[in-house]
Amino acid sequence: MSFVAILAAAPDGRIGKYAGFDTLAAAQAHVVAFQAGYPDAFAVEAPAAPWPHWRIDMVAKSVTIDDAEFVAAEAERLAEEQCIVDLKADALRQEMIDKLTSATPQQISDYVRARIPDTETANMFIRILLVLAVAVRE
Length: 138
Known about the structure:
The strands form two sheets. The chain has a three-stranded antiparallel beta sheet. Strands 4-5 form a two-stranded antiparallel sheet. By secondary structure, it is an alpha+beta fold. The chain is 54% helix and 19% strand. The two termini are 49 Å apart. It folds into two domains: 3-66; 70-137, no CATH class.
C-alpha cells in the first residue's frame, strides 16, 4: 500500500504537487514539514489509478479516481483476473475429483496417514474421502 502527501491541486481538481510514501506516517510528516507553504495539504492512501486519473478535493481532503475509462478498464481487468482464478479453481477441483475417483481405498488411507499423524483425525478424513469418492463415482 502506498500513501501520498497532497500539497496542492490545480483549479480543475487535478494534481498540482504531491509526494509518494510507503507509510501514512511518513506522508503525514511531509505534510507537517510543508504546512507553512501549503496550509491545505493532507495525507491519504494513494488511489489505485495512476496520478493523471486523480481528482483532488482540497476542502474535503480527499483523492478520488475521476476517469470513467480508467474505472471501466480496471473493472474489466479485475473481472478477467477473477475468471482466471475461477478457471484455475475449476481445473484444480477437477484434478482432485479425478484423483479421488481413481484412488483405491488403500491409497486414500495411505495418503491421509502419511500427512496426518493423529489416528483419530486421520480416520475421520479417510471416512470423509471414501464417502466423497463413492459419491463422485456415482
